[in-house]
Structure formats: C-alpha cells, structure tokens
Specification:
Layout: H1 2-14, H2 16-27, H3 39-50, E1 56-60, E2 66-72, E3 78-85, E4 106-107, E5 110-112, H4 116-135, E6 142-149, H5 160-165, E7 173-176, E8 186-189, E9 191-200, H6 216-227, H7 242-256, E10 268-276, E11 286-295, H8 301-314, E12 320-328, E13 331-332, H9 338-351, E14 358-360, H10 366-371, E15 376-378, E16 393-395, H11 396-413
Parallel strand pairs: 3-6, 3-7, 7-15, 8-14
Antiparallel strand pairs: 1-2, 2-6, 4-5, 5-16, 8-13, 9-11, 9-12, 10-11
Helix pairs in contact: 1-11, 2-4, 2-11, 4-11, 6-8, 9-11
Length: about 425
C-alpha cells in the first residue's frame, strides 16, 4: 500500500497542470442556479471520464438537471462515494469582479471565478483522483463511486436526496468535496429552519399615510426586529458534543477573528428577502419575509418555529409563519468512524500538519447521507471568505493537496 501511496502522490504532482486545467475548465461553465441547467457541464464531465474508460450513468431529475453516477473497482467490499455538485450561485453584477467570473483564469497562485471554492475546486479534485486511480489500475478492495449532482445551491431537492431516495446508489461511507479549511474537514452541520413570515395590512393612498391605511411593511419591520431575539434561545448541548463544539468554536474564531464561533451554539438568523407593496404611492397591504435560521445541536428546528411565533405575538405583530426551503436538525458523523479517521490521516500525511474534524456553522447535503445511514464528512479546497461573494477564487496549492487527500483516502479506506 505504501508503494501505491507514493506512486499516487507522485503522479498527482507530475500531472498537477492537468488538474488545474480541469478546475479552470469547470469554472468556465456558467452553471448558475437559479436558473439551474447542468447539461453542458455534465456532458463535459461524462466525456472527461470516458477518456479514462469510466462509464457514466445519467439520471435526469428534470430535463435540465442531470445526476451523474460513475463507479470504479466493482469488487465485493466497502463502497465509498465521492460527491460534488456542479451548480453555483449567480455571479451577480459582472462589473464588480476584478477577474471575469467565468474565466477560470489562473493567476498569482489562484484559480479565479464563480464556484472556484464552492465547489469546482473540490469537484475537479474528486474527478481527477478517481480517473487517476482507474488509469493506474490501483487495486481497490471495494468500489469507489462519483456522485455528481446538479442541485445544491437552491436547496438540493433535485440532487443528493433525489438520488438517495430512489435507491440509485448506496454506500458504506461518503466524502463531499465542499469547501473547508485545509486541515479541518467538517464532520457535522447545524440544522436549518427556513420560514416565511406573511404580514397583511390595509391599503390606502400613500399621501394619507400614516393617518389612513395600515402598512404591512411597517408591521414587517417590527417582525424583523422581534425575530432577532431567536439568537437568545438556549440549546441543551448533548454531553458528547461539548468537546467537539469547543474545538470547533476555537477553530472558527481563529479562522474568522473575533467571537464568530458563537454561531455554533446559537440560532443564527438572516432575513434574506423582503417583498412588499405594489406601488410607491399605495400603502402596502402585504409584505413577505423569507428568513434563514440555522439550528445548533441541542435544539430542534420545530423549537425555532414555535419561538418565532411567540416572539411575533409578544411584539403585537399578526402574521402567518410557514415553513420554506431547508428544514432539519443538526447532525454529525462521530470522529471514530473509519472514513473520518482515514481522511484525517490522509490530510496529515500530505500536509505534515495536525488535522481534525470540526463542526460547520451552515447546513449541507451531508444530512441526506446520514439520514440514509451513510457516514459522511466534507473536505475541499477553498478561500472561505470569498464563497458566494465577488472575486471568488481558490488556491492552486489547496486544489492539489485535496486531490492527493481524496486519492489516498480512497486507497486506505478501500484496502483496509
């Protein structure tokens, strides 16, 4: 096995230009979601794998959303799944980018563009590592599958859960190539509680406000202020989570500065969309808020919904609260799981640095694997500060490191 490990690392170094070119090419596909159309990038991936003799199965969740499955190994034994998504968030105002968002330009040690960190750097890594293992005829005692999904950024309903719920693939472990820090894969995620708040008012001529009419937008403003108190909810942290939570908070504080790690044991709240009114001179009769909260270990998402309702009542705001988008509780894969141990060992082997798993402040597709009894963690190259922002980029060095980690993890997990 040591000989194979040395060979694999050497080959990734030798072919690193090909890996970076692959990442750059993936970024050049404008796979923004919404609107969501994975066909062009999916065809490229299918052709790329075919060059290495790897056949890809296509499962259409819709006419424009293609899920791809490809497997090497096929011997009896364990089954490791490498998962990545092809969609990216919209690039936004093009003029705000220093480098065009779909250029895939390689400059100053970085690959630039929308999706570079989230997550085409990781996607390139799992594609490259799998193709290389197959090309080198590495003897795997089990199966390694690529699960490439088209829908993650808008809730993922046509991606990972669509595939798993239909029984199209199952496995003994999974790794998602989502962005992380270089030495800290994420082994657990907060839960999600997205909801809409619908507020009604009474219309009137705008020139008569506030003497006439009852503005739904003003009521919604009071609702926004009231909902900020969700942060004050106190979770009952399970004893087994306290150590990993402390490690994760310290990691976040070091990564972001200040006390940002506090989000891990609080309910975060973001009122991301406010829609109300019909015309500037009409008192608005309706306002809708879309609210994103993330739920820590020790609270259920239903607890957050109930508290939101109570806060609005206490604030004197009559409103309808209805679930929207993500709903689910915090979940994790314990560090004792073999796939966690193998990937952490691979990081330390490649980097020479201490590595350990941490909890993530957001939610992810990992919850779907865990719901199907598949231990899973996330690891991928990233510049965390640029994710979903202008001038997103990813380090060339990190992309290469992650590809090595993916290859070595598959080698050790499927030969143990």
């Amino acid at each position: 096995m040591n000989r194979w490990a040395e060979t694999i690392v050497h080959e990734i170094e030798r072919r690193s230009d090909d890996l970076i070119a692959l990442c750059s090419r993936l970024i050049q596909f404008p796979s923004e979601n919404p609107p969501g159309d994975s066909r062009e990038i999916s065809r490229f991936i299918i052709d790329y794998l075919a060059q290495y003799g790897i056949e890809t199965q296509i499962y259409e969740a819709s006419s424009t959303m293609w899920n791809l499955l490809a497997t090497i190994g096929r011997q009896p034994g364990k089954h490791l799944i490498y998962c990545g998504h092809t969609d990216v968030v919209p690039a936004g105002e093009r003029s705000a980018w220093a480098v065009p968002p779909f250029s895939g330009a390689v400059q100053d040690g970085y690959i630039h563009g929308r999706g570079a960190s989230d997550m085409k750097g990781g996607l390139a890594g799992i594609l490259f590592a799998t193709a290389l293992l197959h090309h080198l005829n590495v003897p795997l005692s089990g199966k390694l599958s690529l699960m490439i999904v088209p829908d993650e950024e808008t809730g993922g309903h046509l991606g990972v859960p669509w595939v798993l719920e239909r029984g199209l693939i199952t496995g003994t472990a999974a790794v998602i190539a989502e962005p992380t820090s270089p030495y800290n894969p994420t082994i657990g995620q907060k839960g999600s509680c997205w909801f809409e708040v619908v507020v009604h008012g009474t219309p009137a001529h705008g020139s008569l406000s506030p003497m006439k009419g009852n503005s739904a937008i003003l009521k919604a403003a009071r609702a926004i202020l009231a909902l900020q108190k969700l942060w004050e909810m106190k979770p009952d942290i399970p004893p087994e989570m306290k150590r990993i939570l402390a490690l994760s908070k310290a990691h976040m504080n070091e990564l972001h500065g200040g006390d940002v790690g506090a989000v891990l044991d609080h309910v975060s709240i973001n009122v991301g969309v406010v829609q109300g009114g019909t015309k500037v001179n009409v008192v608005p009769d309706t306002c809708v808020l879309q609210v994103d909260t993330r739920v820590p270990f020790g609270l259920a998402y239903t607890d957050v919904l109930e508290e939101a309702k109570r806060l609005l009542v206490d604030a004197g705001v009559e409103a309808e609260i209805r679930p929207y988008g993500f709903q689910g509780n915090a979940n994790w894969t314990p560090p004792s799981e073999e796939i966690v141990q193998r990937l952490v060992e691979a990081i330390m082997s490649v980097s020479g640095q201490e590595a350990y798993g941490v909890l993530q402040w957001a939610s992810s597709d990992a919850r779907h694997f865990r719901a199907h009894g598949i231990p899973v963690l996330q690891y991928g190259p990233a510049e965390i500060a640029g994710i979903h922002s202008y001038n997103e980029r990813v380090s060339v060095v990190q992309v290469i490191q992650c590809a090595k980690v993916y290859a070595l993890t598959a080698l050790t997990y499927l030969t143990a």
